[in-house]
Structure formats: C-alpha cells, structure tokens
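Figure-free illustration: sequence to structure, shown twice.
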Amino acid sequence: MNDLKELASTLQDKQVYMRVFFRIEAGYIWGQGMPVNKTEEFEAEVKGKLTALGFAEEQNDLKPYGSSPTMVRGAERLYCHPMDLSGHIKKESLKEITSALQNAKTFKVYMIDPIYDFVIFNPKELRRELDKRWEDLKKATLESYHPGRGKNMTSKYYFFHKVSVPSMPRFLFDDLFAADQLRREIHFALIEFQKKVLDELIREGFIVTSKSEKGDLLYRTATKKEIAAFQKQKSAQAAGSLSDAKDKENEPLYDLTGPVF
C-alpha cells in the first residue's frame, strides 16, 4: 500500500483506488431475477443515494457490463446490480459511500469485499512504467506464447493477446468498450507497447510467426533449434556483408579498363 501511495504521488491523478464489491440483498434470485417493479424501485433508490454524493449515471449504449445502471464520479465507477455494487472507487471514498448506502429501503449491504488496490496512469505514465520493465515484459511474452511440450508443439500458434507483467503495479484496467476515453486510451497504449515488444522478439529470432486461414498473424515462442538456426543465418548474413564491404574497399577508385579520354 505504501508503495502504491508513493507511486500515486508522482502521477497526474494522485489517488490510490480500490476494486470493491458492496454485497447487497435486494430480493434478487440468481437465475430468476427480480420483479420489474422491485428492480425499478431498487435502481431509483441506489441511483438517488449515489447522485447525492456527486455520481451520475453513465450513458453507454454498448452496455458492456449488463443492463443495470453504472454510476460514475470522475474516475470512480460502480455497476449497480441488485446482488452487488461493483467497480472501483478512491480508497478515501469507502467510508462516505458505505455510510450513504446504509438504511436503504429496497436493499441491505451485508458485506464489503475489497479485492485489490491500484493506481490510474495516463497513457504517457503507463508507457514510462512499461519502459522500466521492458526486459520483464519480453520474458513474460516468451512465456505467454510458449507452445508447451510435445511433438506437435511447433504447429501450435497463438493470436495476439495482452500479457501481464508480474513486476508491474496494478493500474486501471483497460477497456476498449468503456464509455470513458481514458480507459480506451490505456487500452491502445498497452496494445501498442506490447506489439513493440513482440516485434523486437521477432527481429531477435525468439518469436516465430504464421498466419491463420483468415490471414490473421499468429505468434509462437521459437524452439531452441529454431533460435540456433536463426542466429546461424544472421551470422552468415553479417559475414557476407563484411565480405562485400572488404571487396568494395579493394575496388579501384577509377575504372581503367574502358576508353581513356
């Protein structure tokens, strides 16, 4: 926690956030749901309590999390389902929100379930932190695209996917379908950086590529045999380039075989 506080103090946002679930009882039965009138009453009350704290309902036609309302206040957001209010809030907001949800008529908070703490990077800050962990990300990428063992391992490839880095501090999760611009920007910044890492590993011969039937690029960590062959070919190319350079050094400055004027 202290490390995250120290890191947050260097960021534009300055806050430590928490991923949290407010577990509630509102009469919802899993697999059956809840009567429409009770759902409307619940949503009206929970929206009213959060609106009083400065939250507003997010307008997102994609509804990536479901049909229940999502309430936002700056970077804080809570998805308000009648089984739990889930999302991320500032750590310092926990007491305020907990107090506001007490004594509700349509639901009761029976447990607060904190999952983890994290910070929010802007894209520039994210790239800075990823730069510090370039080698860690290369190692994690090789592990993530490793085909395992067995005689068919060289035929196993993977589509591009995001790779987590163990040494990276937790940060706001990226989301291509989020309504807020920041999370989409974080998504593209992360994808861009990880593709740069993949490109370097390909140039170094540690990742090999193929294509799917639809033409999508596929990736796989190279075998020891493939890496050795790549390095041998690279050495041969380098030796050939050096030989060509020496031949050019021995060429005469002027061509004296033709007519002299």
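We now fold a second protein in the same way, so the two outputs can be compared directly.
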Amino acid sequence: MSEAKKHKNLVNEPAEAYQIPVDKKVNQLLEIAQGLPTSTLQEIVEKLKLIIRQKPKASEFSSFLLAGPVMSDSQSEEYKSQRKSINQWRKSQSF
C-alpha cells in the first residue's frame, strides 16, 4: 500500500489525547495536590463535586433511550414487508 493511501485512511485525531494515559495524569495531579494548601485543596474538591453532579448519569441516558419512540408490532411487520419489496425491486433492476 502506498504511503499516500495509508495517510488517506488515517483518522485525524489530536495527538495530545494519547500522549499521557489517564492513570499517569491522575498520579501527576495527586503529586501536585500534595504541595497545595488545605484551602486550595478544599476548593478543588468542591469544583470536582460540581463537575460530577453536572455529568449525566448512565441511568438518565438509559431512561432517555427507553422514552424514545417505539414501533408497534403492526408497524414492524409493515416495515419488514416494505423492505422485502424494495430488496426484490433492487435485485430485479439491471444496471
């Protein structure tokens, strides 16, 4: 495979996202935190708690998905019948 083709198939992702694994980042943060005064640590803890509260929970996402539209049995059968007809039409067409 040529270099140009290899390059074309690559996904452009930010390189910095993979430079330092999360565990190392957490360890670096903890090392920095050890040198901070107690008041600053308490401020950081409060900000982290706020971030955690603002993130949607998995159960909220599941509820969101489950509250979405659902096909009835008759709609599902009609859909399958239409797909079958479309597929038969596609196969019968000669291009």
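Summary for the second example: The two ends are 31 Å apart (CA to CA).
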